[in-house]
């Protein structure tokens, strides 16, 4: 169950990161509200996962899901650049996540 909590915590991290971008510096109400609610949910689920999982493992996987997820959303929906270096960086992050999970 802690891995499921961690997965959803990471997905909510993507939601709040995208909502933060869409809030235009907290000047738009609804993206700011979505950001706040998803941030609370993300931290809450992360805390639940950390009851069982080691701190380093949980935190690395949470931030990795958020980083790669935000990267993909940026490319697919926000028109951000796809460059070999950015793709390479994402591949390295995913490799680190897999290695951390196996460890």
Automatic annotation (TrEMBL):
<keyword id="KW-0472">Membrane</keyword>
<dbReference type="InterPro" id="IPR000390">
    <property type="entry name" value="Small_drug/metabolite_transptr"/>
</dbReference>
<feature type="transmembrane region" description="Helical">
    <location>
        <begin position="27"/>
        <end position="47"/>
    </location>
</feature>
<dbReference type="Pfam" id="PF00893">
    <property type="entry name" value="Multi_Drug_Res"/>
</dbReference>
<keyword id="KW-0812">Transmembrane</keyword>
<dbReference type="InterPro" id="IPR037185">
    <property type="entry name" value="EmrE-like"/>
</dbReference>
<comment type="similarity">
    <text>Belongs to the drug/metabolite transporter (DMT) superfamily. Small multidrug resistance (SMR) (TC 2.A.7.1) family. Gdx/SugE subfamily.</text>
</comment>
<keyword id="KW-1133">Transmembrane helix</keyword>
<keyword id="KW-1003">Cell membrane</keyword>
<dbReference type="InterPro" id="IPR045324">
    <property type="entry name" value="Small_multidrug_res"/>
</dbReference>
<feature type="transmembrane region" description="Helical">
    <location>
        <begin position="85"/>
        <end position="102"/>
    </location>
</feature>
<protein>
    <recommendedName>
        <fullName>Guanidinium exporter</fullName>
    </recommendedName>
</protein>
<feature type="transmembrane region" description="Helical">
    <location>
        <begin position="59"/>
        <end position="79"/>
    </location>
</feature>
<keyword id="KW-0813">Transport</keyword>
């Amino acid at each position: 169950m802690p891995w499921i909590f961690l997965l959803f915590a990471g997905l909510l991290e993507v939601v709040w990161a995208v909502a933060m971008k869409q809030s235009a510096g907290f000047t738009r109400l609804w993206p700011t509200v979505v950001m706040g609610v998803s941030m609370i949910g993300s931290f809450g689920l992360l805390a639940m996962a950390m009851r069982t999982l080691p701190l380093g493992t949980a935190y690395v996987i949470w931030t990795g899901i958020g980083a790669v997820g935000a990267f993909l959303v940026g490319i697919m929906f926000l028109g951000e650049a796809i460059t070999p270096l950015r793709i390479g960086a994402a591949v390295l992050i995913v490799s680190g996540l897999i290695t951390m999970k196996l460890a």
